[in-house]
Amino acid sequence: MSARLGIIGAGAWGTALAQAAARAGTPSTLWAFEPEVAAAINETHENPVFLKGIKLDPAIRATNNAADLSACGAWLVVTPAQHMRASLEAFRAHLRPGTPVALCSKGIERGSLKLMSNVLGETLPHAVPAVLSGPSFAADVARGLPTAVTLACTDASAGEKLIAMIGSASFRPYLADDLIGAEIGGSVKNVLAIAAGIVEGRELGRSAHAALIARGFAEMTRLAVALGAQRETLTGLCGLGDLVLTCSSPQSRNMSCGLALGRGESLADIMAARNSVTEGVATAPAVMELAARHHVDMPICEAVAAIVSGKASVDAAINALLARPFTSESA
Ligand SMILES: NC(=O)C1=CN([C@@H]2O[C@H](COP(=O)(O)OP(=O)(O)OC[C@H]3O[C@@H](n4cnc5c(N)ncnc54)[C@H](O)[C@@H]3O)[C@@H](O)[C@H]2O)C=CC1
Ligand SMILES: O=C(CO)COP(=O)(O)O
């Protein structure tokens, strides 16, 4: 296996993961969607569009040519969830069968309601699938601040290879085997982070914030278990860990989107002002369709889906949540 890592997607997270790999002694080929981003990384060793102000290791080689990843021993895929299918299709001809491919994006495909591992199975069926997820802001990882994540792979030796390529003292992947749990944790926490931002923006208080995390965690776990995940996965880094991080810091794009919604800004204005992805906006309606299909009650996610789809105002959604009948905590 080549010791070079291929990374698809040079946004903030793909770039930070390239930096984590360099810290682990692994050179990488980082594919950027925008040719000018690839050129800037090679010329200045910085990603001025998506990860400004962080000096990158010269072992990171950027490209805009998908064929350059054919020689890599493993791939990380880090494109936004709604572009995952088209991106993977563009790389189909360049994958060597048996290559470990770790999905690092957090979201559910709209329309099909597929998880990223389903999309990978349909587009690159000869890959060995893995999921990397957990509490990890790109800027923290790129700077080398201590971070721990879940690396889920049912092929333990492929999982260990991936961990050896990216793990270091400061970036610590923990091996797991539950891809569905890791994916639902990462996808649903983005939706809940929008709700947490709304709570903050509307100044509903720390008690409401804590209640939201606990009841949101119950929703996340119910959906994951209904889809076949192990309950314990959700108590780990990729579930509760990421939920706590993302609901607690405006450094999260999802939480900051909720904050602005809570303060009265329109979603259109919030989205127009950013070039980075806010996965929870597209994932919220997909989560609700998936929950309905599996008869899972997810009232907080439903409120977020109604707000981002323009079906309810922030105040109407909050009032509807607070008017729900009292129920058992374990329901
Ligand atoms: N930024 C972070 O701290 C973390 C992000 N993630 C996940 O990583 C994924 C990527 O997020 P970021 O790197 O933050 O992105 P970003 O917000 O920094 O950049 C946007 C990305 O979208 C790409 N893009 C835009 N249009 C595209 C198209 N038509 N086809 C393919 N790619 C296109 C851009 O090239 C760029 O890579 C998301 O699913 C996110 O949830 C996961 C953990 C941490
Ligand atoms: O997934 C993340 C941290 O684990 C990043 O969250 P945001 O996409 O909300 O910024």
TrEMBL record:
Cell compartments where the protein resides: Cytoplasm
Database matches in SUPFAM superfamilies: 6-phosphogluconate dehydrogenase C-terminal domain-like, NAD(P)-binding Rossmann-fold domains
Biological or metabolic pathway of the protein: Membrane lipid metabolism; glycerophospholipid metabolism
InterPro entries per the UniProt record, alphabetical: 6-PGluconate_DH-like_C_sf, 6PGD_dom2, G3P_DH_NAD-dep, G3P_DH_NAD-dep_C, G3P_DH_NAD-dep_N, NAD(P)-bd_dom_sf
EC number(s) given by UniProt: 1.1.1.94
Chief location of this protein within or outside the cell: cytoplasm
Domain Glycerol-3-phosphate dehydrogenase NAD-dependent C-terminal: 178-318
Domain Glycerol-3-phosphate dehydrogenase NAD-dependent N-terminal span(s) in chain numbering: 6-157
Enzymatic class: oxidoreductase
Catalytic residues (UniProt): K189
Keywords: Cytoplasm, Lipid biosynthesis, Lipid metabolism, NAD, NADP, Nucleotide-binding, Oxidoreductase, Phospholipid biosynthesis, Phospholipid metabolism
Binding locations of sn-glycerol 3-phosphate: K106, G134, S136, K189, D242, S252, R253, N254
Keyword Zinc recorded: no
Statement: the UniProt record of this protein carries the keyword Protease: no
Binding sites annotated in the UniProt record for NADPH: W13, K106, A138, R253, V277, E279
Reaction catalyzed: sn-glycerol 3-phosphate + NADP(+) = dihydroxyacetone phosphate + NADPH + H(+); sn-glycerol 3-phosphate + NAD(+) = dihydroxyacetone phosphate + NADH + H(+)
Functional summary from the UniProt entry: Catalyzes the reduction of the glycolytic intermediate dihydroxyacetone phosphate (DHAP) to sn-glycerol 3-phosphate (G3P), the key precursor for phospholipid synthesis.
Family the entry assigns: Belongs to the NAD-dependent glycerol-3-phosphate dehydrogenase family.
PANTHER family on file: GLYCEROL-3-PHOSPHATE DEHYDROGENASE (PTHR11728), GLYCEROL-3-PHOSPHATE DEHYDROGENASE [NAD(+)] 2, CHLOROPLASTIC (PTHR11728:SF1)
Protein name listed in UniProt: Glycerol-3-phosphate dehydrogenase [NAD(P)+]
Lineage: Bacteria, Pseudomonadati, Pseudomonadota, Alphaproteobacteria, Maricaulales
